[in-house]
């Protein structure tokens, strides 16, 4: 319990004109913890994720992040260059559509290697070796390293996007519906992979999903959002097995049993 | 040595918002303590709230009122009001739980399902696997199944994986929700043996056993849950 939190979100609100994107969201995240954000379409999940990851400026609120030197910094008071460096090195962002997170017209190896070059690695042989290792970890055959992601299936693209994000050893990864467009057998493989990587690397992650099974499998605690507000927040299995709010009870009771 | 688990005046009800907000009282004034090395059994008919009590003690259900006190890192912690992070460390180090059914994860081998609690305590993988294999062997799970994910196993096989996962650590408190329900006589006897050796090493156990033979063999005392029955106005 002595360790310190990694991320501290305080009162984040985002308005789009008169409409509320998300309202007064506060939470803390510790190293190695996975938080799931669930709720239906339009509940503000992605807006919240974009605000926290500084891809969007919130209307009000603060997001503080523990830097590698131990200091806690308000992300919105950082310079643009420093923030971008943080996003490229210490953070990952896995998009629902891999095409948004990958460069589709350069090779798989270059997609992974590019992030390494961003942190200053210039040794071609070493970059290629690291890229090969990472393709292996996400179960992409070594002989596909020179192919473009355009030639990959949806599941492979998503795994490649994950490798690209994790290669720099980030401490915090944002995931927006990471299994969204994939069929179930591919989903299971990807989830198992993400679960293993999160455990092995001790990553903290914020996963936005509308799939409660994904939340149960991956996350330690979860927030349920409705109309831009967090209506329930707690230990994942407690929220799912003993939901208190009417909307959470509706969500949980709507899961199809197989 | 402090009492491993103290339950004090715990109450629980469910509010069913989808059914016009009706309130279902489950239990109230649940009060008992567990000593090291004893096995207490929750008794009473089905539907009286035995599993709900276990789930509250594991932090899986919230607690409406009262305290659940355990010793963690040398201090007394109230699990009923602990934050999620603390509940997770208490589960890792203090309270183990064998549920009625195994929740399987795709693509994770049985031996790794069993070894996982040890890994999370920082024990090395080879050692954790070795101990997992030993337990699975003791529970007569065929060796050819160890490397397979348990999703396709029979009910009894899954339950043995589940038992091994719960018994592999040395948590001071262990909760058992009908661990022998889907086992044959030979494997029930193995579980009785496992419970006895846990008692001998000072673990405090709290279980639900509908099988009266097993219950008679392991129980030091019965806690009658019907005395905790909640009424609409009491809770």
Name the descriptors.
heterodimer, A: 258 residues, alpha/beta, six-stranded mixed sheet, four-stranded antiparallel sheet, 10 helices, B: 235 residues, five-stranded parallel sheet, 7 helices, 9 strands, 34% helix, globular
Would you write up a description of this structure?
- The complex is a heterodimer of chains A (258) and B (235).
- Chain A has helices at 45-52, 80-89, 98-101, 108-118, 124-137, 154-166, 184-201, 212-218, 236-241, 246-253, and strands at 7-16, 19-29, 34-38, 60-66, 72-74, 91-94, 172-176, 204-208, 221-226, 229-235.
- By secondary structure, chain A is an alpha/beta fold.
- In chain A, α7 links the parallel β7 and β8 (204-208).
- In chain A, α4 (108-118) packs across α5 (124-137) and α5 crosses α6 (154-166).
- Chain B has 235 residues and is of the alpha/beta class.
- In chain B, the strands form 2 sheets. Chain B has a 5-stranded parallel sheet, sandwiched between helices.
- Classes of the chains: A alpha/beta (258), B alpha/beta (235).
- Chain A binds chain B through residues 1, 30, 33, 188-189, 191-192, 195, 217, 220-221, 234-235, 237-238, 241-242, 244-246, 249-250, 253, and chain B through 14-18, 55, 59-62, 73, 84-89, 105-108.
Layout of helices and strands, plus pairs?
The complex is a heterodimer of chains A (258) and B (235).
Chain A (H helix, E strand, L loop, with lengths): L6 E10 L2 E11 L4 E5 L6 H8 L7 E7 L5 E3 L5 H10 L1 E4 L3 H4 L6 H11 L5 H14 L16 H13 L5 E5 L7 H18 L2 E5 L3 H7 L2 E6 L2 E7 H6 L4 H8 L5
Chain B lengths: L4 E12 L5 E13 L4 E5 L6 H8 L7 E8 L2 E4 L5 H10 L1 E4 L11 H11 L4 H14 L16 H13 L5 E5 L7 H16 L3 E5 L3 H7 L2 E4 L11
Parallel strand pairs in B: 3-8, 3-9, 6-7, 7-8
Antiparallel strand pairs in B: 1-2, 1-4, 4-5
């Amino acid at each position: 319990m002595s360790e310190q939190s990694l991320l501290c979100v305080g009162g984040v609100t985002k308005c789009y004109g008169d409409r509320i994107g998300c309202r007064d969201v506060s939470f803390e995240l510790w190293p190695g913890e996975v938080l799931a954000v669930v709720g239906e379409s339009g509940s503000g999940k992605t807006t919240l994720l974009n605000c926290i990851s500084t891809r969007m400026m919130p209307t009000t609120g603060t997001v503080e992040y523990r830097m590698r030197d131990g200091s806690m910094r308000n992300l919105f008071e950082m310079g643009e260059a420093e923030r971008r460096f943080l996003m490229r090195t210490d953070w990952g962002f896995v998009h629902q559509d891999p095409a948004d997170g990958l460069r589709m017209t350069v090779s798989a190896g270059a997609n992974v290697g590019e992030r390494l070059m961003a942190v200053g690695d210039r040794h071609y042989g070493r970059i290629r070796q690291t890229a090969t290792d990472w393709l292996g970890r996400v179960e992409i055959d070594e002989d596909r390293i020179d192919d473009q992601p355009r030639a990959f299936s949806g599941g492979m693209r998503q795994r490649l996007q994950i490798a690209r994000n994790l290669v720099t050893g980030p401490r915090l990864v944002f995931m927006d519906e990471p299994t969204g467009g994939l069929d179930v057998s591919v989903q299971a493989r990807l989830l198992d992979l993400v679960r293993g990587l999160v455990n092995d690397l001790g990553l903290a992650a914020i996963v936005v999903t509308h799939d409660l099974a994904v939340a149960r499998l991956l996350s330690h605690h979860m927030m349920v959002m409705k109309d831009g507000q967090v209506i329930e927040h707690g230990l994942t299995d407690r929220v799912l097995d003993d939901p208190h709010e009417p909307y959470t009870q509706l969500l949980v009771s709507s899961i199809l049993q197989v | 040595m402090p009492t491993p688990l103290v339950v004090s005046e715990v109450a629980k009800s469910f509010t069913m918002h989808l059914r016009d907000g009706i309130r279902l009282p489950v239990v109230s004034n649940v009060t008992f303590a567990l000593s090291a090395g004893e096995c207490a059994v929750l008794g009473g008919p089905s539907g009286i709230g035995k599993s709900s009590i276990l789930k509250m003690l594991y932090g899986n259900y919230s607690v409406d009122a009262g305290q659940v006190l355990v010793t963690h890192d040398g201090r007394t912690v109230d699990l009923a009001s602990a934050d999620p992070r603390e509940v997770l460390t208490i589960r890792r180090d203090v309270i183990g739980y064998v549920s009625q059914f195994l929740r399987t994860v795709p693509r994770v081998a049985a031996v790794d399902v069993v070894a996982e609690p040890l890994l999370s305590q920082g024990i090395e993988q080879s050692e954790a696997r070795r101990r997992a294999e030993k337990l699975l062997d003791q529970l007569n799970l065929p060796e050819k199944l160890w490397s397979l994910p348990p999703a396709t196993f029979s009910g009894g096989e899954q339950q043995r994986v589940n038992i091994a996962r719960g018994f592999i650590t040395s948590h001071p408190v262990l909760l058992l929700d009908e661990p022998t329900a889907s086992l044959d006589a030979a494997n029930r006897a193995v579980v009785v043996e496992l419970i006895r050796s846990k008692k001998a090493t000072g673990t405090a156990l709290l279980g639900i056993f509908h099988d009266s033979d097993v219950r008679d063999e392991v129980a030091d005392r019965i806690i009658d849950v019907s005395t905790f029955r909640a009424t609409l106005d009491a809770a």
